[in-house]
């Protein structure tokens, strides 16, 4: 299995982060909107398509903020993800002004049960994956770190 590229959206509004809501045996958890790059797509094209499919929104794409590598065999889901090696490019995005109906899109993510705005000051209390990302988001939004690109490594 090869390395898969993925584009993710960091969408902030009124002190909140937009996330996809899922559920497993341990309760609710959250991921960023976005997904796998298809052959022939740019990362921006991927992200626009994924946001329509998952959160019913057209987005404007800004700076690349974070790059995360995920090597499944190194993390708690190794029994399911041992063959996964993914590089995620996380872009700052804004929902286009005419989009008011943020909800599950036309092709929700597997297991997606909703879309939710998470308060940034409380991110640590949410199961947002990758969990290590929560502190980077909080630092970015509070001005502690304004790096435009941060390679986060193999985190979950």
From TrEMBL:
UniProt keyword rRNA processing present: no
GO molecular function: hydrolase activity
Needed co-factor(s): Mg(2+)
PROSITE patterns in UniProt: NUDIX
The UniProt record lists the keyword Zinc: no
Protein name: ADP-ribose pyrophosphatase YjhB, NUDIX family
Any matching Pfam family: NUDIX
PANTHER family, per database record: GDP-MANNOSE MANNOSYL HYDROLASE, MUTT_NUDIX FAMILY PROTEIN
Keywords attached to this entry: Hydrolase
All residue ranges annotated as the Nudix hydrolase domain in the record: 2-141
Superkingdom per UniProt: Bacteria
């Amino acid at each position: 299995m090869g390395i898969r590229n993925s584009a993710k959206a960091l969408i902030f509004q009124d002190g909140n982060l937009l996330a996809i809501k899922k559920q497993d045996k341990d309760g609710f958890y959250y991921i960023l909107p976005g997904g796998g790059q298809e052959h022939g797509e740019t990362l921006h094209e991927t992200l626009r398509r994924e946001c329509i499919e998952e959160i019913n929104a057209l987005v404007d794409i800004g700076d690349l903020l974070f790059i995360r590598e995920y090597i499944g065999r190194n993390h708690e889901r190794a029994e399911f993800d041992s063959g996964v090696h993914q590089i995620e490019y996380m872009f700052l995005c804004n929902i286009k002004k005419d989009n008011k109906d943020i909800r599950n899109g036309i092709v929700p993510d597997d297991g997606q049960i909703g879309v939710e705005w998470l308060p940034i000051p409380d991110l640590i209390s949410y199961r947002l994956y990758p969990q290590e990302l929560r502190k980077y988001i909080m630092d970015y939004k509070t001005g502690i770190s304004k790096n435009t690109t941060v390679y986060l490594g193999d985190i979950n």
